[in-house]
Amino acid sequence: MKTNKFSILLSVYFLKYIPERTGYSSNTTKAYRDTFILFFKYNKEALNIKPEKINFATINRELIENFLFWLKTDKNYSESSINQRLAGIRAFFRYVQMEAPEYTELCNSIIGIKSKKIPVKPMNYLSIDAIKLLLSIPDPSTKYGIRNLALLTLLYDSGARVQELADLSKNDIRIKTPTTVQLSGKGNKTRIIPIMPQTAKILKLYMNNTRWFKFNDFNTPLFFNKKGDKLTRAGIAYILNKYVSIAKLDDPEHFCSAVSPHTLRHSKGMHLLEGGVNLIYIRDFLGHSSVVTTEIYAKSNPEVKRKAIETASQNMLPQKMYSKREKVDMEKWLKDMV
Predict the structure, then answer these.
(1) Do 74 and 139 fall into the same domain?
(2) Which of 136, 205, 206, 302 is the most buried (most CB within 10 A)?
(3) Are 39 and 67 in contact (CB under 8 A)?
């Protein structure tokens, strides 16, 4: 029986290479795994090719491009989701390139498939007044009210991703002053985030009044459900949406857009930027791999852009050297650059 090198390399990739050689998070690993499950499904449904029959002889750039097109037309995937699937395929073929150089030409052709261009949407975030209203709704005198208040307050104050919050254990919180939380982000990178005194007070109240913490070790999930299991991303989103629905009734103007856990992360980043915090510090606070990602906050905030334009104009436009028309043209150019 002829050896199927594709099957062998794919198995080794997921069973050994990713766990032992990469820093991929569990979410990234699952996303890459699901990509190939979908790829097998496409071959079976659209081409009548069984998974065990797929090999390097049957794979080419056109097949991958047709698979991505199938995701869009048959499965109604968004362009961003298709790009995520393409990223998983590229990652595997970069691995193949290292392990089996004889397939370099095939790998290069697939790695060279371009991602879909996605229009940049305005960043959705809440004002400080909206955050204050949202956090005023949970009742701290009740068992779940204090849990939900601690959860939402920490989600905003730390700028955590929802999965980072879900993965927190009791051991990740340092209650003593200065209070901090240790977050484990993408690529299993950790960062220590300072917590504001108000948030520390709420967390201390929550932890001191939750009997579960007294009878379990430090690895106990910080936020858990009735069964004692850690809250899922969906569970956290459900809690947030419950209070957002109430807040909308009081102030629909500030809650006109959809609010997700990531909205609170965006809000914290924006409020730090509006407070004059340097982009480099915001990058480290939010755990971005590059300041380029953090710059999106500056580009999405009209007030920050206005201040940048005014500052640049003062520094670069000597009043007596430019006509009024030239100043308008220069400011327009600066606005496009910021």
Answers:
(1) no
(2) 206
(3) yes
Q: What does the pLDDT look like over 48-66, one tens digit per residue?
A: 999 999 999 999 999 999 9
Same domain, 63 and 164: no
**What CA–CA distance (Å, rounded) separates 321 from 327?**
10
CA–CA separation, 222 vs 241, rounded Å?
20
**DSSP assigned state of 79:** H
Within 10 A of 170 (CB to CB), how many other CB atoms are there?
A: 17
C-alpha–C-alpha distance, residues 197 and 175, integer Å: 10
**Cα(first)–Cα(last) distance of the chain, in Å?**
61
230-285 pLDDT tens trace: 999 999 999 999 999 999 999 999 898 889 999 999 999 999 988 888 888 888 99
d(CA 175, CA 86): 43
**How many Cβ atoms sit within 10 Å of the Cβ of residue 127?**
15
Q: Please tell me whether residues 91 and 150 are part of one structural domain.
A: no
Record the tokens describing residue 186, joined without a space.
Answer: 């993408």
Task: Please tell me whether residues 146 and 107 are part of one structural domain.
Answer: no
Residue 247: domain span: 128-281
- The answer to whether the beta carbons of residues 59 and 111 sit under 8 Å apart is no
Q: Are residues 73 and 203 in the same domain?
A: no
| Cβ atoms of 267 and 126 closer than 8 Å | yes
Contact predicate 186/289, CB 8 Å: yes
Q: Are residues 222 and 274 in the same domain?
A: yes
Residues 23 and 105 in one domain: yes
Total domains in the chain come to: 3
Residues 154 and 103 in one domain: no
Q: How far apart are CA 4 and CA 20, in angstroms?
A: 23
